[in-house]
Amino acid sequence: MPHEEPLPFWLVNVPKDQWPSDCPEFLKECGEKDRRIIGTPDAEYKRLSWDEVTDIIRINRVDLFHRVPSELRRYRQYTHRLIKEHGSIMNFIVNQRLQWKTMTPKGRPFEFKEDIKVLYNDWPYGIDEKIIHLVVWTKFTLDEDPATGDLFPEVRKKIDDHVRQTFHPSVKPEHVIWFRNWASLKSVHAVEHFHVMLYDPEEEFVKDITNGDIPMIAKVS
């Protein structure tokens, strides 16, 4: 049988009748890691289980979180358009998603609800579909040790306390975990945030905690 050349990464997971003649603009600046992921057929991608997710967070290897290949492609296309339309991802997050008129906090960290907003992660990682991936956005900063890039212990404790008070009454403690991305992995740097993952929570609780939010991945075709 003749040897078949592998498809260019930008054609993988795209129906043949929709193949572009050249690499799309939104994929031309992809790094090697994203090219490798986008060039993987969805059928070969394995979603992470809850146990795998919690292990990754406990050993602080959040760089091991990846999106499903076709969803990463959609994410790249979407953010490329956002930057053109809104000037930056940050502008879109603040003005459209958070709808905050001011970024000045009302009080100390976690003191006022007005300084915090919980929304879905618009483009979640390739994880078990029973896992709900939320982002907790804050107007206040979460100070980190400049030497290590990790949160100061007292800040980590404040987040722990907030997560416990907010989520544990409605979700089993062993089904709640949080993490904060390394600076090098953040797609939005200028607005402080951390991530919370919930395993198989009640739909009504998630609807209530996010004020009925719908992630962008569910809105964008």
Automatic annotation (TrEMBL):
Xref: Pfam families: DUF3605
GO cellular component: cytoplasm
GO BP annotation list: N-acetylglucosamine metabolic process
Lineage: Eukaryota, Fungi, Dikarya, Ascomycota, Pezizomycotina
PANTHER family cross-referenced by the UniProt entry: N-ACETYLGLUCOSAMINE-INDUCED PROTEIN 1 (PTHR35020:SF4)
Protein known as: N-acetylglucosamine-induced protein 1
InterPro entries: DUF3605
Originating species: Clohesyomyces aquaticus
